[in-house]
Every structure is written in structure tokens, then in C-alpha cells.
């Protein structure tokens, strides 16, 4: 019998792929900065070339890695006929590259950009165009929007910004409709995304957490599997079929 799963995924989901965490890898040019000072609208307005260059460097880093067995395990559930929705705090595209099609990005997408003033987009996306930054990173002037002349910015949620409403509502809807919620690799500390396991519990949904360590989510779940994402997802696959 097919099961409707919702996977709530965080940084631990992609750690096995070698994706640097938000605050990791601040070397070279970026070693002089705190990541949180770069990830704000104010920082972009103040020095767009600095912030755009940093995100282009991060995009380049992302394109060097591949989905891991955990990402592939989630996609495999859908291929076996189960309904699978992914609601992720990650800005990478590894779920999609692994084959998942129903993915909601609560914190935006690193490989996409938009105009900071009118939200227009461009094809091909300028954040990945001719992407080959030096190892230590570089200042890069963001391209100008052809619609209004504003600067292109990464399509991610910066500190002080609201989550994309459509993605949030879709995530809540998926939880309401699902049979089971699986939380993978999230600290449970970043709000409002961290509230989703509690929402699931209040809706009466069984919640499983896969995380090598206990987290802020652990007291809210029915089961906690203390293991990496790839191991836990394989165990889940084996337990179902």
C-alpha cells in the first residue's frame, strides 16, 4: 500500500555530499567576514559586488558535489509508488538532482537569482553563468535587470526576510495530507521551519527523526534513529518494501 511521506530536511541531509554548511569554508577573501554579515539585504545594498561574489563562489562549490545515498533514497521511495513531498531548509538542488520532483525550498535556492527591485528573472540564470570563480573568491558586480535596471540578487532568504509564502503554505498542506513525517538532518533551531515537526505532531502525524545527534526536534518525535541520513534512508527503504 502506498504511503504519503513528507521529508523535512536540513543541513545534515547534504553534509554527506560535502556541501559546506552556511558558516563553513570562509577562507581566502571571505575569511575576513562573518557569514551572517553577508547574508542580509543591508549588506547587499552596501556592497553588492562583495555579496554577489560570495554567493557565486558558493554556487560554484555546490556544483562540485553530487547527491548522496540519502537524497537518492528519498527519490527511490517515489519511484516505488509512494507519494513523496520534500520540504527543505537547504538552498542546494541535490534533492532535484537525485530525482525528487515535489520539493519546497523554504529558504530559497542558491542556483537561482532575481532582481532585487522588481523580482524579474533572466535565462540563463546569471548566478551560474560562466561560473568559474577563483579559489578564494572575488568581488563581482551583479548584472543589471533588463526590466528595471535593478541589481540581480541570489534568490535565497536573507536574515530579516520572510519565508516565501507559497512554499510555506505548500509545506503545511503536504503535512496535513500525509501519512508520515520524516525529519532528516535538521538542528530544529531555525524558525519558523523548526516549528513544522510540532505542527505535524499536533495534527496527529507519526514523526520519525534521522539524525546522528539529538536535536531540538528530538523531544517532539515518535522515533529517533541516531544515524547519518544515508544509513537512515536505506533502513527506511528496507522497512517498507
TrEMBL record:
Keyword Cytoplasm set for record: yes
Cofactor(s) it depends on: Zn(2+)
Single GO molecular function: histone deacetylase activity, NAD-dependent
EC identifiers of the protein: 2.3.1.286
The reaction(s) this protein catalyses: N(6)-succinyl-L-lysyl-[protein] + NAD(+) + H2O = 2''-O-succinyl-ADP-D-ribose + nicotinamide + L-lysyl-[protein]; N(6)-acetyl-L-lysyl-[protein] + NAD(+) + H2O = 2''-O-acetyl-ADP-D-ribose + nicotinamide + L-lysyl-[protein]
Residues bound to substrate: 55, 58
PROSITE patterns tied to this protein: SIRTUIN
UniProt binding sites for NAD(+): 89-92, 185-187, 211-213, 229
Active site: 107 (proton acceptor)
Keywords: Cytoplasm, Metal-binding, NAD, Transferase, Zinc
Entry-linked CDD domains: SIRT5_Af1_CobB (cd01412)
Family the UniProt entry places it in: Belongs to the sirtuin family. Class III subfamily.
Swiss-Prot/TrEMBL domain comment: 2 residues (Tyr-55 and Arg-58) present in a large hydrophobic pocket are probably involved in substrate specificity. They are important for desuccinylation activity, but dispensable for deacetylation activity.
Name the UniProt record assigns to this protein: NAD-dependent protein deacylase
Lineage of the organism: Bacteria, Pseudomonadati, Pseudomonadota, Gammaproteobacteria, Lysobacterales
Gene: cobB1
Amino acid at each position: 500500500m502506498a504511503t504519503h511521506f513528507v521529508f523535512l530536511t536540513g543541513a545534515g541531509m547534504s553534509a554527506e555530499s560535502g556541501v559546506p554548511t552556511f558558516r563553513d569554508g570562509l577562507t581566502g577573501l571571505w575569511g575576513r567576514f562573518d557569514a551572517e554579515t553577508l547574508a542580509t539585504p543591508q549588506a547587499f545594498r552596501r556592497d553588492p559586488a562583495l555579496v554577489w561574489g560570495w554567493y557565486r563562489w558558493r554556487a560554484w562549490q555546490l556544483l562540485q558535489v553530487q547527491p548522496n545515498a540519502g537524497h537518492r533514497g528519498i527519490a527511490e521511495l517515489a519511484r516505488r509508488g509512494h507519494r513523496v513531498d520534500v520540504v527543505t531548509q537547504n538552498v542546494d538542488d541535490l534533492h532535484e538532482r537525485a530525482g525528487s520532483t515535489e520539493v519546497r525550498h523554504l529558504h530559497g535556492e542558491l542556483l537561482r537569482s532575481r532582481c532585487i527591485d522588481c523580482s524579474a528573472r533572466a535565462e540563463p540564470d546569471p548566478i551560474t553563468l560562466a561560473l568559474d570563480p577563483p579559489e578564494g573568491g572575488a568581488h563581482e558586480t551583479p548584472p543589471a535587470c533588463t526590466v528595471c535596471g535593478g541589481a540581480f540578487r541570489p534568490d535565497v532568504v536573507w536574515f530579516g526576510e520572510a519565508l516565501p509564502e507559497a512554499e510555506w503554505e505548500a509545506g503545511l498542506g503536504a503535512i496535513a495530507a500525509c501519512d508520515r513525517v520524516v525529519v532528516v538532518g535538521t538542528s530544529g533551531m531555525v524558525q519558523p521551519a523548526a516549528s513544522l515537526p510540532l505542527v505535524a505532531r499536533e495534527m496527529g502525524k507519526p514523526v520519525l527523526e534521522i539524525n546522528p545527534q539529538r536535536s531540538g526536534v528530538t523531544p517532539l518525535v515518535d522515533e529517533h534513529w541516531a544515524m547519518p541520513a544515508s544509513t537512515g534512508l536505506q533502513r527506511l527503504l528496507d522497512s517498507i518494501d
